[in-house]
Specification:
The complex is a heterodimer of chains A (243) and B (218).
Chain A: H1 9-41, H2 55-82, H3 85-117, H4 125-146, H5 150-178, H6 198-242
Helix pairs in contact in A: 1-6, 2-3, 2-5, 2-6, 3-4, 3-6, 4-5
Chain B: H1 2-14, H2 18-37, H3 41-62, H4 65-73, H5 76-82, H6 87-116, H7 124-149, H8 156-182, H9 188-217
The chains are: A mainly alpha (243), B mainly alpha (218).
């Protein structure tokens, strides 16, 4: 029993089909509990008032926006090294989800920034690097859409993902150099003492788990769709060849 | 490799259009800027380094889709792929030829356009240095983008969508060096970082470009 068994599309589909209802249920439960807890059961912040509550959407979506790209990077590497089609399709399936997460993070950040910083948008390093990340997602998806041959498309997008990762990282530190920011530093971490009080932190953790589960469920679901679409394409090609 | 380099240079110079087009574009962008923001010299001299950098970047972008497409169409690329030199060398030479025909004229023209935009006197040397250090990176990154989209029918727009985000670090450090120079600050740090980026992409990106080209030629 190894992880590579799931490179077989049939095995992947049967397993994910059994796991998906549970994943959906868990994701929805986590999101419902976390958001309800965050929105209604936590006190307002003494400085930021009720606006702090958007943090329960902003932080998880921002985390998933970056992690989605990392997942695409791993999937692209697996495709380039071991040439498992499921892996390439998973990377393709993750891109729109990651792009959506980036938009959610940007929009919720803007909504929070308007009352707090007095501006919807500021050319702050974190904000700018997220906008650049969004452009990378757009380019990646556009390249997938532009190429007809699925294997060529998978190869080219995988290499673009590798190169893009390096440049996204470069841009991240270049914009730091370019402008000092308004955005606060990291307020949550695994190893340091938290500077977010437990009342806010626990529901946020549930929300992060919810977003993570939602992402996994969406990617598995979309990968299944991609596999089926690929099968239909193969069947049609075969039919046309037979006719 | 030298023969290939000379061939690319000759084609760019003689076959009409390619050479000089980028330069003319650079000139027009620079002329349009005062029309769009007003002729006030104070504002113009403040934004001059950024405008010149952006203009150079766009002029570079403009000529990218011709970089490999012509060789792709007439089958030269297939021959080059089977030639005794590695494909990595081919894309490096292509990028070098692109820089000599597009980047270098921009570097030389930039001071003249700087006069038009009322660039402060101490800003000229940092501007030229930063462009000379940065435009090779633009050519190398652009070659990667051209290699990615070479097999596509209408790759031009996609090419800019793919390449422009990759240009961000180069633009940041280049424009920052030029801006610091124009304001009389020391431009050494961004210049060194810019040179670092150029060296980095020139060393590693041809590998990716060649890999992409191999996929496209398959």
């Amino acid at each position: 029993m190894s992880i590579w068994e799931y490179a077989n599309p049939k095995k992947f589909l049967t397993t994910t089909e059994r796991a998906l209802p549970w994943l959906w249920a868990l994701a929805i439960a986590c999101l419902a509990v976390g958001l309800f807890w965050g929105f209604f059961l936590t006190p307002d912040d003494y400085r930021m008032g009720a606006t702090v509550k958007i943090f329960y959407l902003h932080v998880p979506s921002a985390l998933m926006a970056i992690n989605a790209w990392l997942m695409m990077l791993v999937a692209s590497l697996i495709w380039l090294i071991r040439r498992h089609h499921v892996s390439a399709l998973a990377a393709r399936a993750a891109a729109p989800v990651g792009a959506t997460m980036t938009v959610i993070a940007l929009v919720t950040g803007a909504i929070w920034g308007q009352p707090m910083w007095g501006t919807w948008w500021e050319w702050d390093p974190r904000l700018t690097s997220f906008l650049i990340l969004f452009l990378f997602y757009l380019g990646y998806m556009a390249l997938w859409a532009a190429i007809d041959n699925p294997d060529t498309a998978a190869d080219l997008t995988s290499i673009l993902c590798l190169v893009g990762s390096v440049f996204a990282l470069l841009s991240r530190y270049a914009v730091n150099f370019w402008n000092q920011g308004l955005h606060q530093g990291a307020s949550m971490s695994l190893d340091k003492k938290e500077n977010v009080a437990d009342v806010f932190w626990l529901p946020a953790l549930v929300c992060i788990a919810g977003f993570l589960l939602l992402f996994v469920a969406l990617v598995l679901y979309r990968t299944g769709t991609e596999i089926r679409a690929r099968r239909i394409q193969a069947l049609q090609t075969r039919e046309r060849a037979a006719a | 490799m030298i023969a290939l380099f000379l061939r690319d240079l000759k084609l760019a110079l003689r076959a009409g259009g390619g050479f000089g087009l980028g330069l003319a574009f650079f000139l027009i962008v620079t002329v349009l800027v005062p029309f769009s923001i007003g002729p006030g010299t104070g504002l113009l001299s403040r934004i001059a380094p950024g405008v010149l950098w952006l203009g150079a970047l766009l002029a570079c972008l403009l000529s990218l889709d011709r970089l490999l497409a012509l060789d792709w169409e007439d089958g030269t690329l297939d021959l080059l792929a089977t030639a005794p030199i590695p494909l990595e060398a081919v894309v490096t030479v292509k990028a070098a030829a692109h820089w000599v025909t597009t980047g270098l004229p921009l570097v030389i023209a930039a001071p003249v356009l700087g006069v038009l935009l009322n660039l402060s006197p101490e800003g000229f040397l940092p501007l030229v240095t930063s462009l000379a250090l940065g435009t090779p990176a633009l050519s190398v990154i652009g070659t990667f983008g051209a290699a990615l989209t070479v097999g596509l029918k209408r790759g031009g727009l996609l090419l800019s969508l793919l390449v422009l985000p990759l240009y961000v670090p180069t633009l940041i450090f280049g424009a920052e060096a030029a801006r610091r120079g124009a304001e009389g600050l020391d431009p050494a740090t961004p210049l060194l970082l810019l040179a670092g980026i150029t060296a980095f992409v020139a060393a590693l990106l041809p590998l990716a470009s060649a890999a992409v080209l191999r996929v496209n030629l398959r």
